[in-house]
Amino acid sequence: MSIRLYVGNLPKEEIDRDALANMFTEEGQQVSTKVIKDRKTGKCRGFAFVTVESDEVADKFIEKYNGQSFMDSSLKIEKALPRSKGDEGGASAEAGEAPKRKGGNNNNKRSKKQSSTQKQQGSIQPDPRWADELAKLKEMLASANN
Predict the structure, then answer these.
(1) Quick one: pLDDT band at residue 46, thresholds 50, 70, 90?
(2) What single DSSP character describes residue 129?
(3) Where do the domains of the chain lie?
(4) Which of these, 20, 14, 21, lies nearest to 38 by C-alpha position?
(5) Is residue 81 within 8 Å of residue 99, measured between CB atoms?
(6) Of 24, 59, 52, 20, which is closest to residue 36 (Cα–Cα)?
(7) What is the DSSP secondary structure assignment for residue 91, as one 8-state letter?
(8) Is 74 strand, coil or helix?
(9) What is the DSSP letter of 81?
(10) pTM over 0.70
(11) DSSP 8-state secondary structure symbol assigned to residue 104
């Protein structure tokens, strides 16, 4: 079973995929590389993915190349997290997923979908934090219309 590795701390400039692959194939190991590039500029986004044959090879690969210098940058290599369903484009859709940073929130799409579904079903509920204020406002409007 192949294992994907996250290669971080790459310089944010044009990087040739073959140059990166050549660094890793010194021992004759079979590896596949994917440099993640900015769509507009074509420059590296600062990370890449390398796929190796097995878990054992991955561990040896990390031990050997983590901290190695590539284009004046010290590489950070670790096992990539598996892709999660529903990812849109970008790195995680390319080949595995880079480790997540703290504070990321991707729940906006879900809440928007839920609210539109509730509207279609006619079951819109007021925000409980404002329910009392909303009730008072409704009473004021009802009394003003009478």
Answers:
(1) very high
(2) G
(3) 3-81, 116-145
(4) 14
(5) yes
(6) 20
(7) H
(8) strand
(9) B
(10) no
(11) -
Strands (E), the chain: 3-8, 32-37, 44-52, 69-70, 73-74, 76-79
Q: Packing angle between helix 55-65 and helix 17-24, nearest 10 degrees? A: 100
Residue type, 26: E
> Tokens representing 5?
């590795």
Backbone dihedral angles phi then psi of residue 45, each to the nearest 5 degrees: -85, 5
Question: pLDDT for 85-110, tens place per residue?
Answer: 655 444 444 445 565 555 555 555 55
- DSSP-derived 3-state class of residue 125: coil
Q: What share of the chain is helix, strand, coil (3-state, %, to 5)?
A: 40, 20, 40
Report the SS3 class of residue 53. coil
CATH 3.30.70.330 fits 3-81, yes or no: yes
Residue pair 51/32 in contact by the 8 Å Cβ criterion: yes
- What tokens appear for 114 in the block? 């839920």
CB contact at 8 A, 87 and 97:
yes
Residue whose C-alpha is closest to residue 70's, from 95, 33, 30:
33
What residue type is assigned to position 129 of the chain?
R
